Amino acid sequence: MCAFEQFTLRTGRPTRPAGQNHAAYRSDHLSGTNVPPPGRGEADESALLSQLAVMGRGFLASPTRNSVALLGVGLFIVIVAAACGQIRLNNWNQPFYDALSRRDFPQFLVQLGIFGIIAGALLALNVAQRWLVEMLKLKLRQGLVQDLVRNWLVPIRATRIANVDDVGVNPDQRMHEDARRLTELSADLGIGLFQGSILLITFIHVLWGISSGFVFHISGATFAIPGYLVWAAFLYAASASLVSLWVGRSLIDRNAERYEREAQLRFSLVRANEHIDAIAVAGGEAAEVRRIERDLASVLFAMRRLLTGVMNLTWVTAGYGWFTLVAPILAAAPLYFAGTLTFGGLMMASGAFVQVQSSLRWFVDNASTLADWRATLLRVASFRRALLGVDELKECESQIGLIEGAPGQVVLEHLEIASPSGLAKLDPAFVEVKAGERVLIVSPAGIATTELFRALAGLWLRGGGRIARPRDEKMLCIPRNAYLPPGTLREILAYPSPTARFQADAFPHALERLGLESPGTDAGSIPALGPDPARQGTAVFIICPGCHSRAALAPDRSSVGQP
User: Fold this and answer.
1) What is the distance in angstroms between the CA of the first residue and the CA of the last residue of the chain?
2) pLDDT above 90 for 133
3) Of 142, 174, 414, 424, whose CB count within 10 A is highest?
4) Does any domain span residue 480?
């Protein structure tokens, strides 16, 4: 029997580092959670400018920024050209409707031909704008997801972010669905706002010119209101925007709550699928159904809360939308009945009024979408900020020191582990483990054994003391749950290094050392394993002896676990 050197993990009080307040140090350690520094929590991410700054820095560092800039220039040109076409189309209203009022059939045909030319040009511009918008969404998503994934998979950072309150829960949802929603909504809202601004600038000039000399006559008194239609459009849109802001202000939090609960439901479904064999063996299907239904009920509750807010907002947006059908005519009617406008001029003024107030009502029309965008921005920006700040600790907070020591040994000095269960100390205070030695660590139930091994791997820094790991040597740490990446057998054997790092004969030699060799089989020629290679890898050790290597290493999924 092999001899083990035994060490004990005990509960204890923290050792106060020099110059540090003892009470503060203990409270930090006994909290046992990897809480980010102040201002990095999701609750503190409410400042819109702060969130935009976080995402802006990520965009500037993205390799897709040049492509996004070129697409932006193309969109600017197309939108300005389309605005000019809209102006020309609005001006076409007056001669067309005047021809109708005069029953001038030849002029009517001429105006129809002009309309065909204008509409054809606008159609081409609309198609070009659509292509540019979709390409912009694609590039924005590429840059954002690459930035999040690369920051997330910085060595050791992913496991640390998992302990950062709610920000580290279900990061896949934030990098996949939330990032997709954020890029698509940002593109649609940004382009819509810019296009509305261009139309506003161009059509205000038209409206001002039509109503520049408007005069009210009330009880013998005369009141001149230059640009009357412009002011009417501003007042109408401002009232709609203020009411929409007041009614829809709660949708941001309700959308964020829904996305959080959707992520939890998705996690439960994925987790059940990953452990379906264990669930089936234990007969736990009914328990899993109850757990998933609880998560589903939570999602449905959040959706009902969101539905209530959306319905309240719809009363405002739909109500103003219906009134918009007659608002331009009502606003321009005084000019028409005063003889200032012809019927064609009335229709031209009505069209310009609609364009101006539509641009000014951009917030009203997009109030629900803006709330959705703010919710996704909150989740993605807080996640990115947590990724960049997870490696930082508070000034008053101590951490386990990881240093390089002598080759061939691991040294633990005054090691203290802070965890949710309290503070644990290694006894004796100085431990030296040399290569080839076997060590047994014992501890009472509930003591931070898991955090101890995470600290040895460099994944848990909450605590005190030092860990000296061998210089210029690698430590192999075996996780509790095995992981095999999708790919060929050659890629799996080389993981996490690239296959080019090893010579061709290194792969069959590795298989031979494990007793998995098969005559005439090349490790690189074995086809790729499926989406769940860890499961298929289990079949390797069960059925490989005496079997053909190709069948054993890449078994059919239906055969896994079968006798």
Assistant:
1) 34
2) yes
3) 174
4) no
